[in-house]
Design brief:
The protein has helices at 36-46, 106-113, 129-144, 167-172, 183-195, 223-232, 253-256, 321-347, 349-357, and strands spanning 3-4, 9-14, 20-26, 64-67, 69-70, 73-74, 79-84, 149-157, 160-161, 202-209, 237-242, 260-261, 264-265, 273-274, 277-278, 283-289, 299-302, 308-311. The protein has 361 residues and is α+β, with helices and mostly antiparallel strands. It has one domain (3-357): Chorismate synthase, AroC fold. The strands form six sheets. A five-stranded antiparallel sheet has the order 1-2-3-7-4, covered by helices on one side. The protein has a five-stranded antiparallel sheet with strand order 9-8-10-16-11. Helix 3 packs across helix 8 (321-347), helix 6 packs antiparallel against helix 8 and helix 8 (321-347) crosses helix 9 (349-357).
Length: 361
C-alpha cells in the first residue's frame, strides 16, 4: 500500500535509483498560501551530504510542484510533487546484485514480489521518505493557519541521552541534537561507529504544540494508534513511545496520572493524548531508530540462490539514520495532525462553525 490518510491522503511513488521520488497530496483545502521557500527548506533539512554525520549522496532535491497550486495558493485539487534523482550511483550495488544485505528489506521484498531491484533497495529505500517530508511541509502550511507547530530533535544517540531539551538548539545542530551540552559526546559516538565501519542507533523526540482538544476518532482511528501506525511505517523505526511510554509501566498510578486544575494539566505523562483523543496539551512522541543496516564490516549472508557468502558493502550510507529520520518523523506527525483536524471539521458541526467563524481555510 502506498497511500495513507483519510481526509488528507498522500500517495508516494518512485525508487531510490529511478528517475525520482514524488507524491500526490489529495484533500488539501483551497486558499492556503503556499510558501515554496519553506517547502524547499523543509526538504533541505532531510538532505544528505551536508556534513560528516549523514550519507555523502549529494542530491539537489529540488521540489517541483506539478499541480494543485495557482497564483501562490492551493486550489483544492490534488497537489503533485516531483523530486528528481540526479546523483544515484547504481554501479555501487553491482557486487550485491544477487546477495541479500543483512537486516535490510532486500530479503523480504524479493520473496514477496519475486523481483529484485538491488539498486539501493529500490522502493524500500529511505530515499522514498523525501516525499513524506515534502507532503509534510504542505501539512505544516495548513497547521500554521491554527498556530499548531511540530518540532523535532535527537534525544539520544547510542544511549547517550539529552538532559536539557531545546528545540532551538536542534535547528542549528549538525545532528539535530536537543542538548548543546551533550551534542559533542553524541557526535563522537557517531564518529567512533563510522571509524569502525559500523553504525549506531538513536532516538528522536517529536512534539506538537498548540494542538486543540478533540483530535482523534475512537475507536479504530485513535490519534495515538495512528501515530504508532505511521511512525512504525518509517524505515528503521522499531519502537514508539507516547508521553511517559515505557516508564509508565514501572510506576504507580498516583505517579503517572496527570492531575488537573482550572488552568489545565499539572503534568503531561500522557503525552497529550487521552482515550485516543488529543487533550490540548503538548503531544510528545519518541521514535526509536535501529542502527543503519548498511555497514562496511564483512558480514555473513546468502544469495538469491540460497548460497552462503560474505558480503562486503560499498556505497554511501548514513552512520546514524535517526538524524535525518527525525525530520521525516516530524513531517509524519504534521500530516497526522492535519488529517485529524480535517476529519474533526467534517464530523463535528460545532467545530465546523467555529472554524468558519474564525475565517479559517
Amino acid at each position: 500500500m502506498n497511500t495513507f490518510g483519510k481526509m488528507l491522503k498522500v500517495t508516494t511513488f518512485g525508487e531510490s535509483h529511478g528517475s525520482g521520488i514524488g507524491c500526490v497530496i489529495d484533500g488539501m483545502p483551497s486558499n492556503i498560501k503556499v510558501d515554496t521557500n519553506f517547502i524547499q527548506n523543509e526538504v533541505n533539512r532531510r538532505k544528505g551530504g551536508l556534513n560528516l554525520y549523514s550519507t555523502q549522496r549529494k542530491e539537489s532535491d529540488i521540489v517541483e510542484i506539478l499541480s494543485g497550486v495557482f497564483d501562490g495558493y492551493t486550489t483544492g485539487a490534488p497537489i503533485g510533487v516531483f523530486i528528481k534523482n540526479n546523483n544515484a550511483k547504481s554501479k555501487d550495488y553491482e557486487n550485491i546484485k544477487n546477495i541479500f544485505r543483512p537486516s535490510h528489506a532486500d530479503f523480504t521484498y524479493f520473496h514477496k514480489y519475486d523481483i529484485r531491484d538491488y539498486r539501493g533497495g529500490g522502493r524500500s529505500s529511505a530515499r522514498e521518505s523525501i516525499a513524506r517530508v515534502a507532503s509534510g511541509a504542505f501539512a505544516k502550511l495548513l497547521l500554521n493557519e491554527f498556530n499548531i507547530k511540530v518540532r523535532s530533535g535527537i534525544y539520544s544517540i547510542g544511549g547517550i541521552e539529552c538532559k536539557d531539551i531545546d528545540f532551538d538548539n536542534a535547528i542549528n545542530s549538525e545532528i539535530y541534537s536537543l542538548d548543546k551540552n551533550i551534542e559533542n559526546i553524541q557526535k563522537e559516538a557517531i564518529q567512533k561507529a563510522k571509524r569502525n565501519h559500523d553504525s549506531i542507533g538513536g532516538v528522536a523526540l517529536i512534539s506538537a504544540f498548540n494542538v486543540p482538544v478533540g483530535l482523534g476518532e475512537p475507536l479504530y482511528y485513535k490519534l495515538d494508534s495512528i501515530i504508532g501506525d505511521y511512525m512504525l511505517g518509517l524505515n528503521g523505526v522499531k519502537a514508539i513511545e507516547i508521553g511517559n511510554g515505557i516508564e509508565s509501566s514501572k510506576i504507580l498510578g498516583s505517579q503517572n496520572n496527570d492531575e488537573m486544575c482550572k488552568n489545565g494539566f499539572l503534568s503531561n505523562n500522557s503525552g497529550g493524548i487521552l482515550g485516543g483523543i488529543s487533550n490540548g496539551d503538548t503531544i510528545n512522541i519518541k521514535a526509536y531508530f535501529k542502527p543503519t543496516p548498511s555497514i562496511f564490516k564483512p558480514q555473513k549472508t546468502i544469495s538469491t540462490h540460497n548460497e552462503e557468502t560474505i558480503l562486503t558493502l560499498k556505497g554511501r550510507h548514513d552512520p546514524c539514520i535517526a538524524i535525518r529520520g527525525s525530520i521525516v518523523a516530524e513531517s509524519m506527525l504534521a500530516l497526522i495532525i492535519a488529517d485529524m483536524l480535517l476529519i474533526n471539521a467534517s464530523s463535528n458541526i460545532k467545530y465546523l462553525k467555529k472554524i468558519y467563524k474564525n475565517n479559517k481555510f
